[in-house]
Specification:
10-stranded antiparallel β-sheet, 3-stranded antiparallel β-sheet, mainly beta, about 350 residues, about 45% strand, 16 strands, single chain
Length: about 350
């Protein structure tokens, strides 16, 4: 049976993804854009994940700073759009995401009001028309502000490890579908799914596509499986005892729910703790998750009471939120339990 998911929640997740602060942001107020971008890329290199460093090196060699564009993200932040020259390709790919067309690549970075590059993504654009050879100005501003585009096709957002986060599909300039990774645990009803090959502590991850008008699930494709204590598609979670493990924390905000009329939105923030170890399948493992709290963003006259539960395994962590929203006139809305999953290498790189 297909699930129905409001597309608004997916889009809100994207907005949170582009609004949360990341570690390692740097300020270079007196440097040119090229020097600033190169310095930020250098700061993103890993001491444990060599493939990430190789990807950054290849990316840096293909950046075209002669055609840099600056676009507005919101009232306080801007986007730096650096075209990537021909000859660049994504190595960390598989049949699901491969294409016979020649994609157009860009490095898209967020510049905050303090002059800090706080995050960046590789964007792979697969144009609908073979005659499209460039991404028009203000395309990414229009994507993040839900406006119509001048072009159609697929926009795929990846991190510097070339891990695909989400994809937007545009037809005639309007968004028609959105895809993202989602987990299906052993308890989820999956017929003939790869999850059945593993134990009860395993989670199978799928690439799920949604229709943006109805919110209905169009289809899903299996990606890989992660397991508590090892096993699954990612291999064993056992580490090399001779390698020192580096403990780190990450702040992870996310959208819990939002009503269709945008009268209220519930957000939550977790602190993820983990250690880096390059011998493990995802570059390390979780050691804890702490719920920092949730918040209700709403018009005056609303209040929020939350209930929370968290859990974690080697490669995945989760936070479950439920609660009650009360209006000043006494009417209440009971928010059912919503669970958000975190994958280790999405936050620790």
């Amino acid at each position: 049976m297909k699930k129905t998911t409001p597309f608004l929640a997916i889009l809100c997740l994207l907005m949170i993804f582009y609004s949360c602060k990341k570690d390692g942001t740097l300020t270079y107020p007196n440097l040119s854009i090229s020097n600033q971008v190169n310095a930020w890329l250098e700061s993103q290199k890993s001491t444990t994940i060599q493939i990430k460093n190789e990807n950054i090196k290849a990316l840096n060699e293909h950046l075209d700073f002669n055609k840099v564009g600056i676009e507005h993200l919101n009232e306080k932040e801007k986007l730096i759009v650096v075209p990537i020259k021909d000859g660049y390709s994504i190595k960390n790919n598989n049949q699901l995401f491969s294409t016979t067309q020649n994609p157009i690549y860009s490095l898209v970075l967020v510049l905050n009001e303090s002059g800090k590059i706080r995050k960046g993504n590789i964007v792979q654009y697969i144009p609908e028309s073979q005659t499209t050879t460039k991404i028009p100005d203000n395309t990414f501003h229009n994507i993040f502000n839900q406006k119509k585009l001048e072009v159609s096709g697929r926009f795929r957002f990846l991190n510097l490890q070339e891990t695909l986060f989400f994809e937007f599909n545009y037809g005639k300039g309007s968004m028609t579908s959105a895809s993202l990774r989602q987990p299906k645990s052993k308890t989820t009803e999956v017929t003939n799914g790869p999850v059945d090959q593993y134990g009860a502590d395993c989670i199978a991850w799928y690439w799920v596509e949604y229709d943006t008008d109805s919110g209905d699930e169009i289809g899903s494709t299996y990606l890989y499986t992660t397991c508590d204590g090892g096993g699954g598609g990612g291999g064993s979670s056992g580490g090399d005892d001779s390698e020192p493990e580096i403990g780190q924390n990450r702040l992870a905000p996310w959208v819990v729910a939002s009503n269709p009329d945008l009268l209220w939105t519930v957000t939550s923030t977790e602190t993820l703790s983990g250690v880096l170890n390059s011998s493990q399948p995802l570059g390390g493992h979780f050691t804890n998750i702490i719920h920092q709290g949730s918040a209700l963003v709403a018009s005056p006259g609303y209040s929020w009471l939350e209930y929370n539960a968290t859990s974690y395994s080697d490669y995945t962590a989760s936070s479950s939120i439920s609660g009650v929203i009360t209006r000043s006139d006494g009417n209440q809305y009971y928010l059912p339990t919503i669970t958000h999953y975190f994958i280790f290498n999405d936050y620790f790189q």
